[in-house]
Amino acid sequence: MTTSAPAHTLPVLDLSRLDAGDAEAHAFRAELREATHEFGFFYLTGHGVATELMDRVIRTSREFFDLPEADKMAIENLKSPHFRGYTRVGGELTQGKVDWREQIDIGPEREAIEKGPETADYFVLEGPNQWPPALPGLRETITEWRDELNDVALRLMRAWALSLGADEHVFDEAFAERPSTLIKIVRYPGKSDPEPKQGVGAHKDFGVLTLLYVEPGAGGLQVEKDGAWIDAPPVDGAFVVNIGELLEVATDGYLKATVHRVISPRIGEDRVSVPFFYGPALESTVPTLELPQELDAPGITIDPENPLFRTYGENALKSRLRAHPDVAAIHHPELLG
């Protein structure tokens, strides 16, 4: 794969057009379908999330990363059987290689499910988060963030459904009542020896939909298009949106889960970003849509090294086990191998 960027830029879509009358809403849905068919990525403006909240999320994230090491390690993810909490730099893998970042993983705040002979393995992902005692404001801010982004994500799912000739609410049963979300609060420290390191290795997202917010001015995200990498720097007030493998499966490959990566900053710089991964209830399967005849679905790409499971929880657990085998070895050794 070459490293030169082609002339392509990612599309910019304005979600507020859904409220601007039938013609504008129809045009938005058509552009949404086209953007995720051609690129799998786009910028989303007009989403209604307050600028104050977006600024507070970044500010609070930086407050966490500025804490003494002991305060961050108080919620180390190795203590959580649900793969939640803080991971120090070098503690997560992508495609078996170390990612140069530190982060917190935060899911829905729920009770743990007791293991039993009939309990699916993926229910180990359900449970409480770890919140840092040294920064009590993090929980309030991230809970508000999750509620806002749940609403944005569900609006997008309904817009996709209509754009693909399905009922607007075809995804609601799987998503609306008990969505599975994962919020990562990520800091990429500067690293050059002599070139920047892998912040996150090249990969596709395993789920359905990702809303990424990056602090202003912080580049590093690159998207694969036609054999080359497109830089995707942050756009003021916008989310970077991409689809995951299960939405590709739901559309028989018509919508495209796209390979992307993050290059770490150089020494003397760092980068904070907050990806929000949206999925259905763990036990749910994403409905397979019957597309209109004029939409020619190419079928999904089969990777023998990366099997796809139709049940969301199986796909999510596969991802967690690969990214954090150390957590699994402590709490779920029976799931390894």
Tell me about this structure.
The protein has about 325 residues and is an alpha+beta fold. The protein has a single domain, classed as Jelly Rolls. Helix content is about 30%, strand content about 20%. Strands 1-2-12-9-14-7-6-3 form an eight-stranded mixed beta sheet. Strands 8-13-10-11 form a four-stranded antiparallel beta sheet, with no helix packed on it. Strand 1, helix 1 and strand 2 (about 40-45) form a beta-alpha-beta unit. Helix 1 packs across helix 4 and helix 2 (about 50-65) packs across helix 4. Mean pLDDT is about 90; it is low at about 1-10.
Write the SSE topology:
Blueprint (H helix, E strand, L loop, with lengths): L11 E3 L7 H17 L2 E5 L5 H15 L3 H5 L11 E3 L5 E2 L2 E2 L3 E5 L30 H27 L8 H4 L4 E10 L8 E6 L5 E6 L6 E5 L2 E4 L7 E5 L1 H6 L9 E4 L6 E10 L32 H12 L1 H7 L6
Helix pairs in contact: 1-4, 2-4
In short:
With 337 residues, this protein is α+β, with helices and mostly antiparallel strands. It has helices at residues 22-38, 51-65, 69-73, 137-163, 172-175, 245-250, 312-323, 325-331; strands at residues 12-14, 41-45, 85-87, 93-94, 97-98, 102-106, 180-189, 198-203, 209-214, 221-225, 228-231, 239-243, 260-263, 270-279.
Keywords:
single chain, 337 residues, alpha+beta, Jelly Rolls, eight-stranded mixed β-sheet, four-stranded antiparallel β-sheet, 14 strands, globular, disordered N terminus
Structural class: alpha+beta
- N-to-C SSE string, H for helix and E for strand: EHEHHEEEEHHEEEEEEHEEHH
Q: What is the gyration radius calculated from CA atoms?
A: 19 Å
CATH topology: Jelly Rolls
User: Number of folding domains?
Assistant: 1
Second rung of CATH, namely the architecture: Sandwich
Main sheet: strand order: 1-2-12-9-14-7-6-3
Estimated share of beta-strand residues: 15-25%
> Care to count the β-strands?
14
Average pLDDT reading: 90
Which spans have pLDDT < 50 for at least 5 consecutive residues?
1-8
Helix % is: 25-40%
Q: What is the terminal-to-terminal distance?
A: 31 Å
Helix run count: 8
CATH superfamily: B-lactam Antibiotic, Isopenicillin N Synthase, Chain
Task: Indicate the CATH class.
Answer: Mainly Beta
Describe the sheet with the most strands: 8 strands, mixed
Give the overall shape, derived from the CA principal axes.
globular
